[in-house]
User: Fold this.
Amino acid sequence: MFGKRLIFFLFLLTVLFSSGKWAVAQDDKESAAIEAFEEKDYNAAYPVFKELVRLYPNDVKLNYYYVVSAVATKNDLTALQANMGVALKNQSKKDIFYYAGLYAELNKKWDDAIGYYKQFQEEGRKKEVKAFNIEERINYCNTQKNIVPVEEPKDTIKAEKIVEVTKVEESQKEEVAVVEEVTIPETLAQQLIEIQITPSVVFKHISQFKSKSAQQLYIQLWKNEERVAELNEEMAQLREKYSASQDFEEREKIASTILDDENEILTLRQSILTIPKQLIAEEQKEWKKATEQEIATLNDDSKNWEQKLAPKTESENQEENIANKTIIIQTPPEEIVQDEYVYKIQIGAYRKKLPTYVKRLFDKIAAFRPVENYTDEKGIVVYTTGKAHNYADALKLLKQVRREGVKDASIAAYKNDKRITVREAKLKTN
Assistant:
């Protein structure tokens, strides 16, 4: 009797150990990298955090460790912008401003570097500010910013003359840049916009900008928003492709593309947040001394654009259809209420907050398909992913989710969003 109990106890320990082994291995790797980071062994920490942010691109803490390690070792200096944007959300680590400044300095973006250094000077601990020689770094950046490159004098021509000619040429280039016309995308030209420059100055069309640079900024903003929409659509298609694929290498490539798209979206969204402030400031300079007549003219112009580009009402569309001898007959479909049976993959159930390693795993899965959750009648939060309408597809989805790291995932069945047994669902769907 004692022997049977001992065997059962050992079997139970084996099951518990194996189910958590994958998470422990990952945590050990991360813990070792954090220890190396704290000891300022950035060369050892850098490759680990680079791999981790590839898997978890939106994790603020991991991005902080990665960018500090990368900047300290001067790695990836041309590809850190998106990661730096995420890392800067880590408000508890003020030295991130120092490394953001150093990153900008290494890329010769002197104004950005000075801005971050000053922020670190204001918010960082005095001891750290002194240790990093912030005042010296700011002075260095100011010096580099004000250096004007001068060509070496040729033959008997005096250096002073060359500098003078260079300055004239540069000023001429600036004048040409100001006069240069901005190309407005045709789609944008057919859209109404809404930008409030001052309480009395509101633009309704792209052509109403006075400042060419502000107009160019708005076009860039519009292009960025269009690109974000394209990337979101592309990622939706990639997630569907990932769900349908049974090939491991293909899924890895798709996952990598999705992560690249997410990083690009992050960079674009940062730009989308900053551009409006810049273009409004540019236009306010132009409208600061505007007369009442100028503002009235602008308002009249806005009304004309609204009449020209405003979307047609339903009655206007009907009139147009009649004029074109096009008759549209719409028959309302009969309402048929049917029970909906679906299978989802349950990836976890927790009464308390998600453990860190579990949250990261769920975030990774969310890059490929939505992760949903609900609280059951016992107060437990149940997490699911994916959806299938027959048991065979649910089995395929289950295998896929387990390959992605959730070894204890299982199939759950629902009728009209209410949990039922898998057996009951199989009888109805198969």
Q: What stands out?
A: The chain is about 65% helix and 10% strand. Confidence is low (pLDDT under 50) at residues 8-25, 148-179, 322-335. Residues 186-309 form one domain.
